[in-house]
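Lab notebook, design round three. We kept the backbone fixed and only want residue identities now. Task for the bench partner: fill in a sequence for the structure below.
Input structure tokens:
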């Protein structure tokens, strides 16, 4: 379909909810005609270099011929079929690849339909696991301040209640526990005191805790912070010591983004349960997965219910699985690590000039993630057009101006992108 005309845009602002938006005062929209490679083409003909990869997901760029072919071939065979009592090659081969790519202990795959649902599934797995182990009192979750795990009610309950996104619902959410966020930065020298409160909570509440859920090494929507892999290593050891499962939410970080295929691998650890999504289909369509150890799967299966209690209608949608399989194959073939290292160098160099600007509190880069943190939040309505005028698509959040480009972005486009970020901050100053 072509880009929207004036009547369609009027309908949009009157009738369609966009993410986190008001229907009385709808946000202004930039109508899109198409997207290809790292460029988003607006309806007025302007082309924007995309810094967001559609929120971490379009790692191969848009309109990729191999992903297009995978989708077309699969749609002519079977777009969807129920997964109850039926199975198919796209789901089997995708799961085989996920088991091979993720840390070795993760052997069982539940194919979910979005990142938030993969988190719900992980939480339910942890609860069912302890029930099956004869410890039904272990139902609570421990989470980390500044963490973010999605917008459904269970996922919201393990999001930091003070990060502002979910506090309206605090009365209806399960009451979970929260440990302080890790303070030791990615390259910092770890100090035992940084994890003392986590240990205290694990030891005091071990009888009621099912799992610790965290975003390994990179805290995304809750602040775009990169913390010490040593902290994560210690957290893994503490979970073992106090018999609490470890759930790693790699919905954002999975598939190379942080410089390792999975951010857990910076610490050389494996979680008991792993959530992946976003980049799984190269950003083509919604699909996620929750992987678990054989012990967790077998224990749940031998429990009272005899099965895991989840089964969405669009589970393992063949179209999404076929595209995801091709996306992961592409990732392996492209030498993603060299590309991410290249982008990391370009982001460091390009964002460095922001460090000396008066409004800038911090500049940080890890893998293909670049962040400028300001002292004050930006006004999105004011700042978004400034980026578009400079030919880039960047969507700031609060004090954070950040990018996570596609792995195929050229050095030249990356320099334009980072240059525009620095330039916009100068204009705001
Ligand atoms: N976990 C993390 C770490 C995320 O960043 C997100 C999405 N921003 C989610 C879960 C939820 O994923 P989705 O938006 O696909 O439901």
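Proposed sequence:
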């Amino acid at each position: 379909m072509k880009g929207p005309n004036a009547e369609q845009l009027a309908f949009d602002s009157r009738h369609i909810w966009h993410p986190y938006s008001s229907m009385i005062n709808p946000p202004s929209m930039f109508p899109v005609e198409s997207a290809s490679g790292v460029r988003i083409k607006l309806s007025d003909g302007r082309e924007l270099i995309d810094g967001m990869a559609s929120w971490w997901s379009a790692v191969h760029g848009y309109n990729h011929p191999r992903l297009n072919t995978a989708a077309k071939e699969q749609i002519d065979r079977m777009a969807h079929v129920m997964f109850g009592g039926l199975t198919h090659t796209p789901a089997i081969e995708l799961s085989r690849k996920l088991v091979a790519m993720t840390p070795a202990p993760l052997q069982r795959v539940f194919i979910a339909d979005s990142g938030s649902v993969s988190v719900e599934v992980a939480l339910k797995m942890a609860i069912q696991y302890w029930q099956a182990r004869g410890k039904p009192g272990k139902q609570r979750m421990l989470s980390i301040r500044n963490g973010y795990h999605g917008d459904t009610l269970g996922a919201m309950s393990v999001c930091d209640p003070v990060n502002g996104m979910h506090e309206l619902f605090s009365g209806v959410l399960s009451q979970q526990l929260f440990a302080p966020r890790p303070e030791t930065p990615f390259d910092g020298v770890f100090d035992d005191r940084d994890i003392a409160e986590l240990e205290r909570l694990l030891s005091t509440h071990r009888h009621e805790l099912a799992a610790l859920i965290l975003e390994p090494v990179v805290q995304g929507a809750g602040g775009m912070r990169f913390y010490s892999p040593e902290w994560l290593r210690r957290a893994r050891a503490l979970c073992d010591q106090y018999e609490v499962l470890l759930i790693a939410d790699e919905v954002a970080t999975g598939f190379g983004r942080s410089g390792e295929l999975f951010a857990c691998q910076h610490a050389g650890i494996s979680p008991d349960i792993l959530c992946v999504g976003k980049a799984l289909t190269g950003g083509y369509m919604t699909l996620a997965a929750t992987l678990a150890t054989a012990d967790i799967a077998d224990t749940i299966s031998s429990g009272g219910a005899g099965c895991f209690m989840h089964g969405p209608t669009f589970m393992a949608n063949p179209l999404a699985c076929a595209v995801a399989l091709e996306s992961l194959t592409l990732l392996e073939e492209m030498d993603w690590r060299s590309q991410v290292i290249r982008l990391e160098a370009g982001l460091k160099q390009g964002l460095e000039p922001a460090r000396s600007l008066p409004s800038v509190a911090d500049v940080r880069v890890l893998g293909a993630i670049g962040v400028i943190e300001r002292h004050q939040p930006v006004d999105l309505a004011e700042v978004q057009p400034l980026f578009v005028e400079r030919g880039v698509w960047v969507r700031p959040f609060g004090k954070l101006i950040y990018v996570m480009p596609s792995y195929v972005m050229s050095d030249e486009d990356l320099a334009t992108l980072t240059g525009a970020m620095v330039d916009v901050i100068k204009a705001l100053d």
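Keep this in mind before ordering anything: The first strand starts at residue 32 and ends at 36.
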